[in-house]
Amino acid sequence: MDKKQQIKKVADWRLWAHLLAMVMVVLLLCLGVKFGLDIYTRHGEEVEVPDIVNMDYDKAMMLLDEYGLKISVADSGYNKKLPADCILAQAPSATVRVKAGRVIYVTVNSTSSPTVTIPDIIDNSSLREAEAKLAAMGFKMLPPKRIVGEKDWVYGIISRGRRVGTGDRVTTDAPLTLIVGSGGYEDENVSFSDDYGDEPVDAGSAVIEEEIVVPELDGVMGTSEIEKE
Length: 229
Known about the structure:
Elements lengths: L2 H8 L2 H29 L4 E3 L8 H10 L3 E8 L9 E5 L5 E3 L3 E7 L5 E3 L9 H10 L8 E7 L2 E6 L2 E3 L4 E3 L4 E6 L9 E3 L6 E3 L20 H6 L1
Parallel strand pairs: 2-5, 7-11
Antiparallel strand pairs: 1-4, 3-5, 6-10, 8-9, 8-11, 12-13
C-alpha cells in the first residue's frame, strides 16, 4: 500500500465517524454510572438523626420512619428506673447527619435485671480479690461477715439470705455478702440458708475446730474448781 492510499484511508470520514461513536459510547457509559450511583446511594440527601434515647421502641421506630431512617436492636441493657423496651442508647447519636435509609442501632432496656454466673472465688481467693472481681461484674457488695478461719480468706457467699456457689446465676440487683475468715473471732448471728433446705446454716461451720474435753479424774481438780481458786 503506497502513501497516497494510506492517507486516503486515514482521511476517510467513516473511520472518524466510528471513532467518534466509540468515544460517545464511553462518555455515555461513564455518565450513566455516575448518575446511577448517585441515585442508588442518594448522594447529597442527608437527614439529621433525631434523639430517641429514653423513648419507647415502637415510638422511636415510627419517628425514624418519618425521617426515612431504619432501626435495629444491637444490644439490651437494664435500668430499673426506666420502663421496659425503652431506648437506652443509639448509634449514630442525635444531631448527626446521615444519608436517608441509614440504620440506627439501639440498645433496648430489658424487662428484668441480668443474671451473672458466680465465679470460682469461694475458698480460692482473698477478700480484696473477690470484691474486685464481683464489683467488676456489676454486683453490689455488702460489708463482709467474719467467721473463724484464715484472715480475709473467702469461705462463702450469701445472696438475699441464701448461700450461693460457683456457677450459680444471680441477679445483679441482689447485693452479695462475703463470708471471710477473721483470723480468730466470729461475728454474731452469721447465718444463711442452705441451697437445698430452709433451715439456717451456721456460717461458722465452714471451719470446724477440735473440741478439747478435760476428763474428770478422782483426786484431780476439774477446770471449774481451778477457776474458783
